Amino acid sequence: MCEEFKLLKQGAEAKLLVCNYLGKPTLIKERFQKKYRHPDLDEAITKERIKNEARSIVRCKTIGVKTPTLYLVDFDRRRIYMQHFENSITAKDFIINTKKLETGDGSDNLNILSQKIGETVRKLHESSIIHGDLTTSNILIIEKNPASNVSKSLEQDNIELVMIDFGLSHTASSAEDMGVDLYVLERAIISTHNDCPDLFPRILESYQNIKTKNKSYNIREVINKFEEVRARGRKRTMVG
What we know:
Blueprint: E1 2-10, E2 14-21, E3 24-31, H1 39-62, E4 70-74, E5 79-83, E6 89-90, H2 91-101, H3 106-126, E7 129-130, E8 139-143, E9 159-163, E10 170-171, H4 175-192, H5 199-209, H6 219-239
Helix pairs in contact: 2-3, 3-5, 4-6
């Protein structure tokens, strides 16, 4: 089925392998067995997370949010086989590279990226999809029509964001869950991109400015909950 597995990345929860599956560039996400858990509990948790990830990936496609195409889910091997975007860069690396270069287009590039991230997260929330681990590492940037170097500059009409790593995702329509999702993103950006103080405010502005398509979605309630979650987080930080 697969030829020549190559380790791409290894984290605390899973390792990422790349290969050719049925002639297509493929990324395999293989979850580790947690030895400290009871085997039955570990199997149940892993299976549930794999299910959640697969469901969210498929559901995102139905609402116009780009995600990798699923090829195979193998519960026995704890693996998900999915599309591998070979010519992509994470939002994290793009932002870091942009700040290093500090070219004249840098601010424009970050504005475009911020707008796209805000719009994408809003789409998820309007469809009751909570990502659960919103970070700039879990957002890929690809070009619709590859022509320029996406690692250096962005053209608004020629780029797409690909959302990845839905292992902690779930379905929820509560403003609290959406507020927590936004707070996780804010903390991740502050931690990773502390030299970009305007980045999250721009994302949040884009998130708020989209005209809603879901009448049951209340943007003001979500923002109020986000502010509450943020205040609780700051209080915990101060107390230690």
